[in-house]
């Protein structure tokens, strides 16, 4: 047993938080890029694209994130014969996970645009890409901001599961410190508090944005 | 690629997988049932005029929704014994899952209660219903119809969350997977099978939920 002062515990946890933030950022940005493509497939006029992207979303939304992490970390390593580091595996798994959810959020926003907008865009002689780019997406983006911010909270919380495959971030560090100090109550309370400080402002922001857009109509 | 997939490990241990599915469903069912009760209590607190009750409910919801489930689970399993509350892994798992579900259910149910128009409650009072009757027949049941889809969605999320409790060695489907993996090293086959089993579980739950909705909440479209 090693004795840590309260400050040391807190400093170690805060220092590890940067990896939680980094992984969240990668997953959110990567998920956004992939998710945008998946969303385009989801709303595509072509059946095959809608079908394939539908399976993609169904798989990542219908299986536990922990299983997705295991499949990437253990499964891909064995299958491809390469040793994925926890970093790479966590980044891949969280990116695909985020992309499925973001695609579905954004698809919902596009679906909420009245059919008349498509028809009007069509009447203007725009082709499909122009219709999306000029008429549909600008309106959909506005609507999708609050749930997208809200989903960032899910991503941050999701990164804690990367600790299970050995990615050292806040949750993993908390477990290690708790193991050497025998003060799980204190350490996990601190860890929870740090996560709360990361997530709560985003939750508040998402709620505020939603209220503001609701007022604007 | 010099790895050949061998799904024989799945057939040879078929019984384990079925057992895992049953344990997961049992765990989810118990936690969601308790979580629903917590959610109703939380929603009562959230909509109450008592400032303190309201503040407690808000703190509960916000704290649970803004911290990872894994940390909550570790807190209950590893943290609570140091203040004298000793839980085995199954109890800690149920407690953590129920408290987590309760926080989300609180918000969903609150939205449902607030969606009930005041005039409806006044109509109930005018009919001479007492407070309990008004709550049950005018507030709760129509609100349930409104919130039903969200609750089903949250139930699906809760079932997926149960996989996390394998981390405190509570026995369920994911735990069965890690156990078999450590014995056979067939990680890809095992985790793929388990993922698909979760997917099937969720389809079945959604299908049942749809049938229930069709049977019991059809009246909702007439009220609105």
Quick description:
The complex is a heterodimer of chains A (217) and B (224). Chain A is built from eight helices and no strands. Chain A is mainly α.
List keywords for this structure.
heterodimer; A: 217 residues; mainly alpha; MetI-like fold; 0% strand; B: 224 residues; 10 helices; 79% helix
Q: How many separate helices of chain B? A: 10
> Separation of termini of chain B?
59 Å
Main sheet: strands, sense, barrel of chain A? none
CATH fold annotation of chain B:
MetI-like fold
Can you characterise this structure?
Helix content of chain A is 83%, strand content 0%. Chain A is an all-alpha fold and 217 residues long. Chain A has one domain (6-216): MetI-like fold, CATH 1.10.3720. In chain A, helix 1 (6-42) packs antiparallel against helix 6, helix 1 runs parallel beside helix 8 and helix 5 packs antiparallel against helix 6 (128-159). The longest helix of chain A has 37 residues, at 6-42. The radius of gyration of chain A is 21 Å and the shape is flat. Chain A starts with 5 loop residues before the first helix and ends with a helix. The model of chain A has no long low-confidence stretch (mean pLDDT 93). Chain B has 224 residues and is mostly helical. Chain B has one domain: MetI-like fold (Orthogonal Bundle). In chain B, 79% of the residues lie in helices and 0% in strands. Chain B has helices at 8-12, 14-46, 51-65, 69-79, 89-114, 118-126, 131-161, 173-184, 187-216, 220-223. The termini of chain B are far apart. At the A-B interface, helix 2, helix 3, helix 6, helix 7 and helix 8 of A face helix 3, helix 4, helix 7, helix 8 and helix 9 of B.
